[in-house]
Amino acid sequence: MFASTLQILLQPVNLITALIANVIGIIFGAIPGLTGSMAMALLLPVSFGMKGYTGIIFLGALYVGGVSGGLIGSILLGIPGSTSSIATTYDGYPMTLKGQSVKALGIGIVSSFIGTVGSVLTAMMFCPLIASIALKLGPWELFSLCFCAIILVITISKGDMWNGLIAALCGISMSCVGFSPIDGASRFSFGIKTIRGGINMTALMLGLFALSSVILNYARRETVNPPMEHAKLKGFGVSLKELFEHKMLIIRSFLIGLWIGFLPGMGSGLSNQVAYAMARSSSKHPEEFGKGNSEGVYASEVSNNAAVGGAIVPMIALGIPGDTPTSLMLGGLIIFGLEPGPMLMTTSAQFVYVFFGVLLLAALMTLCVQMFGMRTFPRILQIPYHYLFTAITLICFTGGYSLTNSINSCLLMVAMSLLGLFFSYAGLPRAPFILGFILGPMLENNLRKGLTYTADGFLSFFMRPVSGALLTIAILSLFWPALRERLERKRAARAK
Amino acid sequence: MKFGKQQNLSLLYILFGMALFAMTSQIKYRFAVATEDVGPRFFPYCCAAGFVLCGLGKFVSSLGKGSGKPFIGSLSGWGRMAVILLVLLLYVYGLKYIGYLASGFLLMTALVLMLGLDRHPPLWKAMLFSAVVTLSTYLFFENAVHVLLPSGVWMKPLLRALR
User: Fold this and answer.
1) Does B40 map to a domain?
2) Of A47, A59, A270, B140, which has fewest CB within 10 angstroms of its CB?
C-alpha cells in the first residue's frame, strides 16, 4: 500500500497539481480578504474535472496551503488571513514591529510544518481509535469544552478580567444574530436580509482587524510601515537547539490542536487561541506575551496546523467535518464517489492513504515554498504604507463582497470596523470576542441539547466526569487570579 | 459625583444588557422542541444578565482608577477618523450607484492621498496606482474567481448608450 501510494503521489502530473494547488492555497491564506476556505469553495468545481486521484491531491494540497498561508498576513501586516491565525498576530506582528519579521516567519513556517506532519501521522495511525473516543463525547462535554476555552482566553486578557468577560459576551451576543439553533427562531436581525442568517465571520474579521486598524492609524497619524529585518539568518532562522528548548510548548500546543481539531465543529480557529492562552499561562514570562514573544507564534502555529490532521479524523472515519474547509472537502470526496464513514478505510483504503500522503507532501511543499519566500515576503513592508494598506483595503472590500455578492457585506464590514474602534477605545481585548463569536452557536446548541437529553437539568453538566472537570477548570481559572492576588496581599501584610 | 471614562463605559454595558433583555423578550417562537428545552430566548437572556453583572463588576473595580492613555489624543485625530469613515461609507454606496471600477478608483485615490498625509504623494502617482490596482483586482475577481462585481445603477444606462 505504501509503495503504490508513493507511486501515485510521485507521478509528475500529481506533483505539479499539488504544487500549484499548494501555492494557490498559500496565496489565498496570506492575503487578507481571501481565505483558504474561499479558495476551496471556488476551486472545488475545478477538481471535479481531474482524473483519478488528481482531484483529491488538488484539494488536499489546497487545504494545507490555505491553513499555513495565514501566518504571512498575520506576521507582516497584523491582519490575520483566516481565523486559524488570529493568535499568530498577537506576538507575530509585534515581532515584525521590532524588526524581527524574518525570524517570526521562520518560527511560523517550522511550527506549521511540525503541526501538520505530526497531526497527519497521528491521524494515519490512530484514525479509528481517535474517532471512537470523539464519538463518546456528548453535548455536555462539548459545551463544557467551549465554555472552558472561552474562560481560558479571558484569563489571558490584558488589563482586567471584566473587560475580557464583556468582550466574550459581545461575541456570544453577536453570534445570536440570525436563526437560533434547534428551532430556527429569528433573532436580532431586525428585518435586515444580510444578517438574517447570522453575521458573516469573514466580514466581521476584516472589519474588526483590517479596516479598523487602517482607520485608527490614520486618525493617530501612525501611517508608517514597520522596519524590515536586515539581519542575515541561516536556514529558517530557527535552530534545532531553539526548537528543543521549546519542546514542551510545542508538544502541548500540538496536543491541543489535535484534540480540538478532531472534535466535530471545532477546528484551527479555536485551537490557536486556546494554545496561545495555555502558552501564556504556563510561561515564565507571561508579561512578555503580546510584545513579540516567539513562544506565542510557536503555540499558535503548531496548534492550528495540528488541527489539520485532527479535523481529518472525524471526516474520514465518521463522515463528520471538523471545520469549514473539511466540510467542503467532504463534499468533494462524496462527488469523487467515496463514502466517508467507518467503512471508508476498508472499501477505499488506497484513496485514504493517498489523501493522507498528499497532506504530508503538501506540508513539505509549503515548507519549501515558504522557505524560499520568507526572505522575500517581508519586502512587502518596503511598499509605502499609503500604497500597501490602500490596496489591502480594496482587496478586503472585494473579498467581503464576493462572500455574498451583496454590497451589504461591505456595509457590514464598515459596521464591524466601528465595533473594532469601540474595542480600541474601551480597551476591550479582541481574542475573547472572536472566540465567543465562533463558539457561541456551539455553546447554545450543546447547552440546549444537553438539557433536553436528560431530566437532570443543569446538574447533568457537572455529573459527567469530563464535562464536570472542564467546568471546574474553567471556574477555577476564572477566580484564580483574584484569589492569588488576595493571598499575595495577605502574605505581604504578614511579612510586614 | 463625576464619573470617569471607565465608569461611563460600565454604565453603557449595563444599559446595553438591559436593552438586550428587552429585545430578547420580543423574540417570537411557536413551539418548544422538548419539554426540557429552554427555548431561543434563554441564551440571549443569559448574555443580557452577563452584561449587567459584568458592567456592575467593572464599575466597582474601576472606581478610583485613572482613565488610562487617551484614545486618539487630539481633536484633529477625531476629525480624521470621521473623514476616513465617511470615505469608506461613500465607497460602499458608490459601489451601488457608480459601480466597482469607478468607486474603487475614487476610494483608492482618496486613501492614498489621505494615508500618505506626511509624504504628500503626487496626484498622478496616486491615480495611476489606483487605476492599476482597481483594474487588476477587478479582472482577478471577475475572471479567475468568477465573482460578478457591481456595475452601478447609474453606469448601466451610460454603458448601454456607449454600446
Assistant:
1) yes
2) B140
